[in-house]
Amino acid sequence: MNFSAAIRRNGEVSIVDLSGQLTSFASGVLRQTVGDLIQQGNKQIVLNVGNLVYLDSSGVGAIVNCYMSVIKQGGEMKVVGLTPKVEEVLKITQLYRIFQEFHDEEEALQSFPAVKKQSAGAA
Hints:
The longest helix has 16 residues, at 57-72. α1 packs parallel to α2 (57-72). Strands 1-2-3-4-5 form a five-stranded mixed beta sheet. By secondary structure, it is α/β, with parallel strands linked by helices. The chain starts with a strand and ends with a helix. The chain has helices at 27-39, 57-72, 84-92, 105-110, 113-122; strands at 3-10, 13-22, 44-55, 76-80, 100-102. The chain is globular, with a radius of gyration of 14 Å. It is 44% helix and 31% strand. The protein has a single domain, classed as Transcription Regulator spoIIAA, CATH 3.30.750. Mean pLDDT is 88; it is low at 115-123. The relative contact order is 0.17.
C-alpha cells in the first residue's frame, strides 16, 4: 500500500490527511508536505492519522521532524485519528507526551486560538 498526504483547509488551519504506510520510502513526502505548508505561512496544522495503516521508525522520525519544524516557526501541530497501532507506537516511543492528541478533528480545530474566536463569533 502506498502513502499519501492530502491537504485540506479549515479557516486558518491546514489539515493533513495521512493514509497508507508511513515508512522510510514515504517519510520524505510528509516532510515535504509540511515544509511546503510552513513556507506558505501555514503554521496551524492538524495531522490526521486515521487512515495510516503502518508506521515504522522512519515514519515516527518524519512526524517528529515535522512537529519540530512547525514549533520552530512558532506554529502548532495537533494529531487526530489515532488508530490502536499508531497509538501503541506513540506510547512505546513516549511521543504521546509531546504531541497534542484529540479524539476528533473538530476538537483539534477548536484547540487553536484563532478558531475558537471564529467559532465564538459565529455562534
